[in-house]
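Bumping with the actual sequence this time:
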Amino acid sequence: MSNRSGSTITLPASHAVIAPAINGVHVAESLTEAQIPEHVAVIMDGNGRWAAQRGLRPTDGHRAGTENIRAAIESFAERGVRCLTLFAFSTENWKRPRPEVRGLMRILSSTIDREVKPLHEAGVKLRYIGQIDALNASLRRKIDAAIELTQHNNRMTVCVAFNYGARAELVDAVRRMVADGVPSDDITERTISDYLYTCELPDPDLIIRTGGDQRISNFLLWQAAYAEYVFSDTYWPDFGERDVDQALAEYANRTRNFGGRPAHAE
């Protein structure tokens, strides 16, 4: 198992976001930099149902989902999000029908071919988290090449979670701690975080799941301990700027206590 890194996107500190009117009501007039999450993670769900509604194959839905990735990255970057993690393929997705899995692998390969250069030119630094050793050699080389090409970019970090599972990540962290001979008395929450695939990333502030379902699906279990969640009914291929603004506006209206109590509370 390998810890891979990806893309970084950085915007001016003074950047502000104007949220649109939704159903005729302005959800938020403006969001300041302090109200924008540093790290957003997205469970890109609903591709198959999007395809089924149109009488298409599941792989057509996955292809449409990948074609929405660059626009989504740009939307989050323009609003000041510094790190974006996209959950593309889980360790459990291998259980899907073999033709669908093969199609997903081909789509990932073609997406890398199509998107890496434009993302690099846009200043995105690409990262990868997951069990890369389970992928075929050609795909591994493409992932490594994309990471190397974009490693010095600093506009935003985009982290692709492919063949990723949070439980597998935790098992791998424990195994590597044992292999490194870390004494049990030295194991702290910080130590565990340092052995995760995401060790160089901040914990997510906001996790968005598209497609209408409301579950975590084995995604960033440790890192998301205090994340805020927004569940969108929009299928991922249709998730656009309006949905981004709505999610960010909802996040801005939350009070994050991290287990404490607001100063004004009794």
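The tokens above came from a reply further down the thread. The longest strand covers residues 83-90.
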